[in-house]
Amino acid sequence: MVKVSLDKLLEVGAHYGHQVHRWNPKMSPYIYGKQEGIHVFDLIKTKRKLVEALEFLAKSKKEGKLILLVGTKKQAKDLIKEAGQTLGIPYVSERFLGGTLTNFTQIGNSLRNLGSLKDSKQRGEYRNYTKKEKLLIDRKIEKMERMLGGIVNMDRIPDVIFILDTHKEVGAVKEAIKLGVKIVGVVDTNSDPTMVDYPIPMNDDAKKSVEYVISLVKEALRGTSTTKKQIVKREKK
Questions:
Q1: How many Å apart are CA 51 and CA 67, to the nearest integer?
Q2: Would the keyword Ribonucleoprotein be found if you checked this record's keyword annotation (predicted)?
Q3: Nearest to 189, CA basis, from 85, 42, 12
Q4: pLDDT tens digit sequence for 161-210
Q5: How are strands ordered across the β-sheet holding 91-92?
Q6: What does DSSP say about strands 38-41 and 31-35: parallel, antiparallel, or unpaired?
Q7: Distance CA 12, CA 39 (A)
Q8: Which pLDDT does position 127 carry in this prediction?
Q9: Which of 1, 91, 132, 191 gets the highest tally of CB atoms within 10 A of its CB?
Q10: Surface-to-core class of residue 29, CB atoms within 10 Å of its CB (0-12 exposed, 13-18 middle, 19+ buried)
Q11: What is the chain's alpha carbon radius of gyration, rounded to the nearest angstrom?
Q12: Which secondary structure element, helix H or strand E, spans residue 40, and what is its range?
């Protein structure tokens, strides 16, 4: 089981929320008080909810559930990408495209198109194209890889989605709710925790706070192994 440190939560500033006037009243159960016009989280409750969320993620991975990581804000995007690549699970670190979940068939078509473009390039099918045409194709591939590269091997709708900043990624939240995908989400004081199955009430803006929670998620998912055998098994089907 992943150990969550109360001292570390304090050290990384996980207790600092947004300015009081920006709050969502539904976050009140997790707020300790105010400090200089800023809401402060009750870190005892933060730790409890964080442990619950991490245990659920670890259990889901162990059961072979497909987990998607989402975090596109600048403090999180590189960390989410690294986590997804390290763990071998799908991730979205650039903009969450509308329909990623609810219109997965169309997303699948886009992924196949990306694969086709890359295969054609590798086979040298564009060698007789003009320099400008080749450049346009390269740019198209680059853009598609940036937007879809993290989910290129996601062969079905995920069972669980981890979202860093559910307020910013509300589109992902709504799509997950519509499809019954379980949501684990970091919720700051401006978020609605009732939209999330496993809310993690804490600062989702401070770099160190973001780094800490993503490191814990990585540890929870790395400590279980579903893994490559099940992924390979799915790919063979």
A1: 18
A2: yes
A3: 42
A4: 999 999 999 999 999 999 999 999 999 999 999 999 999 999 999 999 99
A5: 91-92, 67-70, 160-164, 182-187, 198-201
A6: antiparallel
A7: 16
A8: 87
A9: 191
A10: exposed
A11: 20
A12: strand 38-41
Select from 195, 194, 191 the least CA-distant residue to 203.
Answer: 191
CA 28 remoteness from chain centre: 25
Query: pLDDT tens, 34-77?
Result: 999 999 999 999 999 999 999 999 999 999 999 999 999 999 99
21-29 long-range contacts, CB within 8 A, separation 24+: 22/189, 22/190, 23/189, 23/190, 24/189, 24/190, 24/191, 24/192, 26/192, 26/193, 26/194, 27/187, 27/188, 27/189, 27/190, 27/191, 27/192, 27/193, 27/201
Task: Please report the DSSP string for 70-138 in residue order.
Answer: E--STTTHHHHHHHHHHHT--EE-S---TTTTTTHHHHHHHHHHHHHHHHHHHTTTTTTS-HHHHHHHH
